[in-house]
Structure formats: structure tokens, C-alpha cells
Write a structure and sequence with these properties.
heterodimer; A: 314 residues; alpha+beta; four-stranded antiparallel sheet; 6 helices; 35% helix; elongated; B: 175 residues; mainly alpha; 70% helix
């Protein structure tokens, strides 16, 4: 169900296809109202025009409800600490406000469709409604084109890391990212070690750790797909060898940084890339906390994998 | 000097692709025209419903023509993305066909729009065919963005570079 709502079969988010209808109709409904406005003096009320905008807004509102369902599913799958989560929340609120305003307009018109010329209230309400709708649309575009939400997601079955984990560096220079055996095949983790952001992938019983940002346009490799030891960027399909970091296929030209990753004492360890430089980089407390949720089986990290704060971090 | 292509691509004034923002209108309106056609078919006798479909077609044609140069400008810079470039060619051709079909639809309706109270079968068929053609083009357009990454990350270099550099990652040269 989630797969269909996210648009896996059509290889693009369903929400994006469904929003055309409400946006188009509400904008035209607004234009019709503007055309109708000069007749607002009451000299000539145009019943047809008023009905026209009533129909346009009515169908547009239904379209909004339909489009909101896959939209919410998409929102739920955005990584929790991604800037897109905020953008998505704003997008949701703006659309909700716009929806509320147009519902008001609809009922004001519905009560008197034939003499809509009179009150200016519905017109002003729909000015704000269009404003919020336009801003929501702008935020939607920002999520796709700046933040890459939903781009290439169908290639990896929709599962993306739900959060960035922030493990603390141990005294031996390693950080614990997971308990061995807790990761499902092709599962990835997004790990932040003192500001260095690393993608950890578990593919075909092998662990890999490499830099999160693609060297082409900074696409998130923790949301990439895999093919025979290669990671494929979700955005423009640059391919990298996960072990060496080498570019196998462009558009990227520069190799990835890779990191040493080993399994020891039942824990998956990544070599911390460097010493913490400033006191603020030495985060205290228990940090390792993955909330990976697979729909069929709730895989969670074993509590013993949670790293205790180091006695002394230098 | 102002480069027309840069303006159409939304560089510096919008900082995002313009074509996808505009095409909500033709896609939404032409789909809406079919919705109103079907309502008018099911419940004839309402001139306003026939007019709703008609004005949707008109609005869709106008907006589609406006969206064209923006799409062309975006496509112009896709040459390095071979597959997206080819998809763009299909997208362009099929959309042109959709525009022609809806112009025909317009011609079928324009004469008796103030009096008609029902949709004729030929008008409905043209609307359906137009929508099928349109949605093929829309899906191809969606593939270009969500599968091939056309325009994705084009304007967000500064947004992400900061994080990548702060973490010591390998980063591409700044353009």
C-alpha cells in the first residue's frame, strides 16, 4: 500500500501527479472570480461566471483531499533531521490553510451562486487562498529540486534512513554504528561523526562506509541504490565503487572518501575520521539511536549497541 | 547582458526551474476539462458545467503555450544527460500533440458555448484522447525529474556544499 502511495510502480511520486488538478482548477477559479469582480457593483450579476468558479473550486478541493493522502505518506518517509522535514511541514500547513480558505469561499458561493457579485468577502478569501497555495507549491518545488525528496526513491523501494545517528567516538578511535546482524540487506545508515557525515551500507553481507554527499551535486548516497559493490546516487545516477570510492560512472568526476569499517565483538565499528577539534564537537551523552522502521518487521538496534558516554574524550 | 536562456531557466531570479511550476496549469486544467465533461455527460442541462470544461481547455492551451519556452530552455542544457535529453524530446513531441488535440477540442466547442447544455460524443472523445496523450507526456516529464534527476540539485549547490565541506568530504570544484 505504501509502495503504491509513494508511486513505486510509476517510478515517480504519486503526490506530484495528483497536485496538478487542484492547482490548475483553483487558479482558474480565482481568475474567473477576478473577471467576475467588475460586475460586483450589482448592476449585472453573472450567474454563469459565479457557477463556473463554484464548480472549479469544488472539484479543486476534492483534488486537494485526494492529493494530500500520498503527500502525507511521502512526508512520513522524509528523514527526521533533514531540512526537508521542515519544508514539508510548512508545505502541509500552507496547503491546509489554503484548503480551509477555499472551503469557506465554496460555501459562501454555494449559498448564493447566482448573485455572487455582491459581497467581496469570498474574493478576498480566495486571494489569500491562492497566496498560500502558491507558496505551498513553491515549497513543494524546493523539496524536489533543492532537497531531492522523492528523487530516485523508487529505485530503492522507498526505504531510506529515518534519522541520522550520532555515535560518540570511543577511546580506540572507532564509533559503534550498529550491532552486527541488526542491519537488513541493503539497509543504510546515515552517520554523523563530529560533523563528518558518512553513509554506512550493508550489502551482500559486506559493510561499507563512504561519504554521504555525492561528488557531483551533493546527492544523499545513504538514499542511493546498490549494484554489485557499487552505490548509485539517487539524483543523477553517478556510480561509485563502495570499497575504493572510485567513480565508475559519471556525471560525478571526483572519487568518494571511504572509511574503515569492521565488525568486532558483535559491533559494527567505523574508524572516526579525525579527532574532535573543538569542545562543542565532543557531544556528551548517549547518542546512538536508530529508529529504523521496516513495515514488516520492526528492526531496532539492540539496547546493548547504545554507546555509553566516554569517560574522557580528548 | 541578460541571457534569455538563463531567465527562462529561472537562474538568479527564481532559483528553481520555472517550467514545472507552470505546467500545473495546463495539466490540471485539461484534466479538469475531462472531469467537467464527464459530469456534464452524467447530468446534462447545465450550461455552466459545459462552460467550465470549455474554459479549462482555453486556460490549458494558453498556459501550455506559456510553459513551452521554459521547458525548451531547461531541455537545452540536458545534453550531458543523454537519457534525460532523449526523454525530453519525446516529452516535447507528445505534449505538442496534446496541445494540437486540445486546440481541436476548442474548435469543436467554441461556436455554441453560450447555449450548449450538454457535451457531444465527439467532444468527449477528443477530450479523452487528449488526456491520454497528455498524461503520457506528464509521466515522461516525471521520469526526467524523479528517475533521471533533471534539474535536481541545480540551484542547491550552496545549500549542501557547506555541510559537505564542514565534514571534510571530497567536493566538486565550485562553478
Amino acid at each position: 500500500m505504501k509502495r503504491i502511495l509513494q508511486g513505486q510502480p510509476i517510478r515517480q511520486p504519486l503526490h506530484v501527479l495528483l497536485v496538478h488538478l487542484p492547482i490548475g482548477l483553483l487558479v482558474l477559479g480565482f481568475i474567473v472570480e477576478c473577471v467576475n469582480l467588475p460586475k460586483a457593483g450589482g448592476v449585472e450579476t453573472s450567474g454563469t461566471l459565479a457557477r463556473l468558479s463554484l464548480y472549479l473550486i469544488g472539484v479543486g478541493l476534492i483534488g486537494m483531499i485526494v492529493a494530500s493522502i500520498p503527500g502525507l505518506v511521502d512526508y512520513a518517509s522524509i528523514r527526521g533531521d533533514s531540512p526537508s522535514k521542515r519544508t514539508g511541514r510548512m508545505h502541509l500547513w500552507c496547503n491546509a490553510i489554503s484548503f480551509g480558505l477555499f472551503v469557506l469561499v465554496f460555501f459562501l458561493k454555494y449559498n448564493s451562486p447566482d448573485k455572487m457579485g455582491g459581497p467581496l468577502i469570498p474574493f478576498f478569501l480566495s486571494v489569500f487562498g491562492i497566496g498560500f497555495l502558491a507558496y505551498a507549491g513553491f515549497l513543494g518545488g524546493k523539496m524536489v529540486y533543492e532537497e531531492g525528496v522523492g528523487v530516485g526513491r523508487h529505485r530503492r523501494n522507498g526505504y531510506t534512513p529515518p534519522n541520522t545517528i550520532k555515535p560518540v567516538r570511543r577511546e580506540d578511535g572507532y564509533v559503534v554504528v550498529a550491532k552486527a546482524g541488526d542491519l537488513a540487506d541493503r539497509q543504510t545508515l546515515r552517520v554523523d561523526i563530529n560533523g563528518t557525515i558518512i553513509a554506512v551500507a550493508y550489502v551482500n553481507n559486506e559493510y561499507y562506509a563512504f561519504q554521504e554527499f555525492c561528488t557531483h551535486c551533493f546527492g544523499p548516497l545513504s538514499e542511493g541504490s546498490f549494484d554489485a559493490g557499487k552505490v548509485i546516487c539517487p539524483w543523477h545516477r553517478s556510480e561509485f565503487d563502495m570499497r575504493t570510492g572510485r567513480v565508475v560512472h559519471g556525471p560525478a568526476k571526483m572519487d568518494l572518501k571511504t572509511f574503515e569499517i569492521t565488525v568486532r565483538d558483535g559491533l559494527v565499528l567505523v574508524r572516526a575520521p579525525r579527532e574532535p577539534r573543538t569542545p562543542s564537537e565532543m557531544r556528551p551523552g548517549v547518542i546512538l539511536e536508530t529508529q529504523w522502521k521496516t513495515p514488516d518487521e520492526k528492526r531496532q538496534l539492540h539496547p546493548s549497541a547504545v554507546v555509553q558516554p566516554n569517560k574522557t574524550v580528548q | 547582458m541578460i541571457d534569455a536562456k538563463d531567465v527562462l531557466q529561472g537562474k538568479s531570479w527564481w532559483m528553481g526551474p520555472v517550467h514545472p511550476a507552470i505546467i500545473h496549469l495546463p495539466v490540471g486544467l485539461w484534466s479538469g476539462a475531462l472531469v467537467f465533461d464527464i459530469i456534464a455527460m452524467c447530468a446534462p442541462g447545465n450550461n455552466a458545467m459545459v462552460q467550465a470544461a470549455f474554459w479549462c481547455i482555453v486556460g490549458g492551451c494558453v498556459a501550455a503555450i506559456i510553459a513551452m519556452p521554459f521547458g525548451l530552455a531547461d531541455w537545452w542544457d540536458l545534453k550531458s544527460f543523454e537519457r534525460a535529453h532523449r526523454l525530453g524530446l519525446y516529452h516535447m513531441g507528445i505534449n505538442a500533440l496534446a496541445l494540437i488535440i486540445f486546440l481541436l477540442d476548442f474548435a469543436l466547442r467554441v461556436g455554441h458555448i453560450t447555449t450548449a447544455t450538454s457535451i457531444s460524443i465527439p467532444q468527449l472523445i477528443v477530450s479523452i484522447v487528449g488526456n491520454i496523450v497528455l498524461w503520457i507526456a506528464v509521466l515522461i516529464g516525471g521520469q526526467m525529474v524523479f528517475d533521471q534527476g533533471a534539474n535536481v540539485g541545480r540551484f542547491s549547490d550552496d545549500v549542501w556544499r557547506v555541510h559537505a565541506v564542514a565534514g571534510g568530504a571530497n567536493v566538486p570544484e565550485k562553478e
